[in-house]
Amino acid sequence: MLYCQPAQKENYDSLIELWERSVDATHDFLKHEHKQIIKTNLPTYFELVDVLIWYDSTEKIVGFSGTNEEHLEMLFLDPAFYRQGYGTEILCSLAKKQVILSVDVNKQNTQALHFYQKNGFEVIRESLIDGQGYPYPILHMRKRSNYPPA
After folding, report:
1. N or C terminus: fewer CB in 10 A for the chain?
2. What architecture is domain 3-143?
């Protein structure tokens, strides 16, 4: 069972390190220079969203999420916790706190695409560039209205 706490500025370095491990494990398409620019900008991004840090029962950081109204802006897990149900648990916990209707996913990150599809999201459109103007196609996903199934 996970629990969460809002991120504080003093947590940012730990979150950036976790982000980098997660991106290294899943974003092999990302050019090094683009990764470094995004990494440098993460503290600014954190200020624009509601960031929650997710812990396991031993108080290890499993990952973090960032939301803005009904949009999941970011969800990153430490690779040590991949494929153990934590991502789904975080999504379910977030859904109990607020409505999450949309998420954007890098098209090349097929693991994330399948994860969100499994959790009730469907692709509604595609952009050829990401939010920073880089040539990484983005899939815009929306929660299916009939999810979860009855």
Report:
1. C
2. 3-Layer(aba) Sandwich (3.40)
